[in-house]
Amino acid sequence: MTERVEYWVKIPFGPIHPGLEEPEKFILTLDGEKIIDVDVKLGYNLRGIQWIALRRNYIQIMYLAERMCGICSFSHNHTYTRAVEEAGGIEVPERAEYIRVIIGELERIHSHLLNLGVLAHDIGYDTLLHLTWLAREKVMDTLEAVSGNRVNYSMVTIGGVRRDIDEKKRRIILDMIKYYREVFPQIEEAFLHDPTIEARFRDTAVISKRVALEQGAVGPTGRGSGIRDDARWSERLGVYPDLGIKPVMPQDVTGERPRGDVFDRMAVRIGELYQSLELIEHALDGMPDGKIKAFPKDNVLYAKLRLMVDGEGIGRYEAPRGELVHYVRGKKGSDKPLRWKPREPTFPNLFSVAKGVIGDQVADFVVAVASIDPCLSCTDRVAVIEDGKRKVLTEKDLLKESIRKTREINPEIKGDPTPVGASCSR
Amino acid sequence: MNDNPVNETNEVKEPTKIEKVAETIAERFPEAQVEVKTNRWKRQRVWVRIPREKYRELMDFIKKLDGEAHYSIGIEQDWGDELGFLSHLVVHYKAAPAVSLIVDVHAPKDDPVIPDISDIFPIALQFEREGMEMVGIDFENAPDKRRLFLPDDFPEGIYPLRLDDKGVPDEMVKNAGHPYYLKGGARK
Amino acid sequence: MPMDAVTGLVYPVAGLLGLYAFVSLVSLIWEGIDRKLVARMQRRIGPPILQPLYDFLKLSSKETIIPSTANYMFRVAPVLALATAIALLAYTPMGFTPILASRGDVIVFIYLLTLISFFKIVGAISSGNPYAKIGAAREATVMVSREPAMMLAIFTIMWRLGKLGVPKPFSMGIFYTHNIWEIGTPMSFVGAVILLYVFCVWLASEIEVGFFNIPDAEEEIAEGLLVEYSGRYLALLKLTNSIKAFISASLVVAIFFPWGVSGYLNLTGFSADVVNLFFHALKVFALLFAVQSVFRAVTGRLKITQAVDFLWKNVFLASLVGSLLIAMEVIM
Question: What subunits make at least 3 CB pairs under 8 angstroms with C?
Fold first, then answer.
């Protein structure tokens, strides 16, 4: 062993790398093409969200939570809302619960389709990437029609949802379901029965059940390794039990027992695509009439939250990537939470896959990282503040620089670049 | 979901498995404050507050209670005169409502030492690394005390999420909040 | 004597330069057509057909950054690779007997073809980038795995065609006097079909598409061999790659589909060569459409171990069987 150590080479994989969608650094120790060790360094995407949250009130944090990450924006907002509702003992109307399910499952469909495309892209199978993302456009359009936005839906509010799903939106969603009933079998065929995909994904980056348990793998990563858990199911969240939720395991899709490889994680996602369609259908059928918010106006909500939130609350929800946990602690009389901490599914999954990929080849690394569907910007949400010693350009400096450059190029330019509008103070 | 007014409360109710777990822990650790709280959609959670001397023992006990216990989050926080580390665990999740267990442990600020549990739940190490850099809890015997999120040149002795004077001083903060409206905006 | 100098030196050099200009243009245009076709298969619009040409011109005018860890081979390698590719044109059958065809020039052809890869490897290693080194290691591994199958097949074909009686055995011009389908026996026909498969896979691995996009794997090792190259050197390497793709495809076309159209048009001499050259380019496009465009649209990339396994256990074996079938009735 000691003699071979000198042939080992450490290479940085990231922070910027074409195989990673977001900046994150892995230090790989390689023996030729074989991975000996993986060290994870997080923090290239720190925006200081928890620190900022110490200076925001409950309602402002909803928007902050939503902007942690584009893809799982609903999940963060939803889970944060659940935590506040638990801490404050706020009740949610039943219709709102159904709407939450519908938006959550639409988001799951778009997130899973995105990940399937990324997986195909990472093995150079760009045709599948483009076709999957073409199929994804339909759900994005549906989300836009339902919520008004493709990405940050802002559908959830504390104590309910902001917008109702009326007959017209309902028809759009039913239309989408009809479209996907035709498309999903094609996607399943392409991903589960393609020899290249099978060759690359089978027995790649195997996370054994033991490692998955040790590292707390969640979501498709955990289920792919045989951990039968789904936060929507085990939490008995909202109306999910009535809609017939159950964890999708790889054996439900492939018919084989779970091996914990990339293929199984992918199979779980494909199974969940179908499950999401069913859940949306059931939710549309079972949706009762009634209110959609506990408090009609945000100023009422603001005043109520000041009085109601006293103590701690935990929100748990199954985001597309796995179990998402938010913790909120508040005090009566304050409009700000004393502590808010989210934990994203990528955090434990990243460490699971870093263990799982050891012994595989460099070629597998990118696929392995993609297979947990990493959302690194979610993971890096913790506080950071510019060090006084270092010269760091903030948005203001950059704006100033760009104004200077514009004036340099064209001194005749007219118009005032200073933005207008009120804002939060520190 | 409180629209089905159940009168189960009047009947003699079979203790749920959540209550059973709470009982087991309360029996085994008399010094712990164990509480079962129910939220508005009838979800029960077990909140355990444990002195730090017994923290490792409790975690070990939970691991023995369910070998597949899932450590889902570790939350470091500043309680004013104490630092706290709160863990959320999911136990007995083979059948539907899983037991949601919250373990809280505190340490005084002048001696912020909490035992490390990463040999029991390996993933806890990463949350502990976060706790070490963010509020400055010292996890005794943690195998990896490097920083996780913060850059390596971040000054020592400053913990961003501390609410006291060890938190981030004002002079370190540059343009936090809205960038345009601080100190005169972009024109200045 | 002056006449000899003209025929012996000026004509070949002029021909080579003409070929170089033609092949550079055509291969870059093919690159554009390929990108467009693949884009359409993926339901994208795709870049304009002349995009690789624009890219080439743009790259030539851009700043060239040399990493501080690089040594002089980093700068020399792209030039040498292109020079090798140009030299290779003189030995490539492109619808007519190659300019410098001589007895045994197939060895020169294979030698020069591998030399291009070799220079790319040397350049990548000299850059000092770990990703480039991984790419170089992969390129070398794939190279030693793909060439034996091709060499075995081409030598067998040459030898077998030589038995039919040719003035210069083992020359690249041989395909325009006899071709593989003329051997005539059913066995040899089956053998030829198997060898066509071998050559198609070899071609795909030579131009690194589909399964074999391993040394340049963008998502894995950030373009591998090319990672540190920029500006003019990148332009040279891209051009070399395009020319190499054209040359490799030309070999397969010459072996299996050597027929020209000049005979039907009653052309002779220079004009016949020009017509054949254009027709040859069309054949190359057709072959590359199957081997490059379609192949890369319907597959992903393999791991290096899987690719090596495939090249030895499948392709080399097929090459062995095909060669035996072709050579059989002469041996027995």
Answer: A
Write the CA distances from A139 to A111, A183, A273, B185, integer angstroms: 10, 12, 12, 40
Beta bridge pairs of residue A161: A156
CB A188 within 8 A of CB A252: no
What are the boundaries of each domain within chain A? 2-41, 49-379
Residue A62 reports pLDDT greater than 70: yes
Q: Quote the CA–CA distance of B106 and B116 in Å, as a whole number.
A: 13
Report domain extents, chain B: 14-187
**Fold classification of B14-187 (topology level):** Beta Polymerase; domain 2 (3.30.460)
Q: And the tokens for C237?
A: 């390497």
Q: Can you read off the two tokens belonging to residue A141?
A: 């359009």
CA distance A135 to B3: 39
User: Which residues from B are below 8 Å from A383, CB to CB?
Assistant: 134, 160-161, 168
Please name every residue paired with B91 in a beta bridge, in sequence order, or none if there are none: B99
Contact partners of A by the rule of 3+ C-beta pairs under 8 A?
Answer: B, C
**DSSP per-residue codes, chain B:** ---S---GGGS-PPPPHHHHHHHHHHHH-TTSEEEEEE-TTS-EEEEEEE-HHHHHHHHHHHHHH-TT-EEEEEEEEE-SSEEEEEEEEEE-TTSSSPEEEEEEEEEETTS-EEE--TTTSTTHHHHHHHHHHHT--EEET-S--S-SSS-TTSPTT--TT-SSTTS--GGG--S-S-SSSSTTGGG-
Largest pairwise CA distance in chain B: 71
Cross-chain residue pair C214–A363, CB shorter than 8 Å:
yes
Contact list in A for residue C301 (CB cut-off 8 A) is 123-125, 196, 200, 363
A314 contacts on B by Cβ (under 8 Å):
45, 88, 100, 102
DSSP H or E run through A38: strand A34-41
Closest-CA distance of chain A to residue C239, Å = 22
- CATH for A49-379, options being 1.10.645.10, 3.30.1250.10, 3.40.1280.10, 3.40.50.300: 1.10.645.10
**Residue C315 DSSP label:** I
Which member of A228, A234, A327 has the closest CB to residue B90?
A: A234
Task: State the Rg of chain A over Cα.
Answer: 23
- Express each pLDDT in A252-283 by its tens digit: 888 788 888 888 888 888 999 999 998 898 88
Would you give the distance in Å from CA A183 to the centre of its chain?
A: 23
- How high is the ipTM of this complex? 0.80
Per DSSP, the three-state class of A283 is helix
What gap in Å lies between CA A382 and CA A205, rounded to an integer? 28
Query: How far, in Å, CA of C133 to CA of C125, rounded?
Result: 5
pTM: predicted TM-score of the whole model, two decimal places = 0.82
The model's pLDDT over B65-78, given as tens digits with 9 standing for 90+, comes to 888 888 888 888 88
> Is C140 touching A (CB cutoff 8 A)?
no
Tokens of A128: 């599948």
Closest by CA position to C315, among listed C187, C170, C195: C195
Instruction: Find where tokens 């495809």 sit.
Output: C249
DSSP conformational letter for A25: E
Residue A227 CA to residue A265 CA, distance in Å, equals 12
- Cα–Cα distance, A16 to A25 (Å, whole number): 8
Higher per-residue pLDDT: A411 or B128: B128
- The DSSP output letter for C99 is T
CB contact (8 A) between residue B178 and residue A423: yes
**Half-sphere exposure of residue C185: CA atoms within 13 angstroms, side-chain side:** 10
Tokens of B103: 């373990």
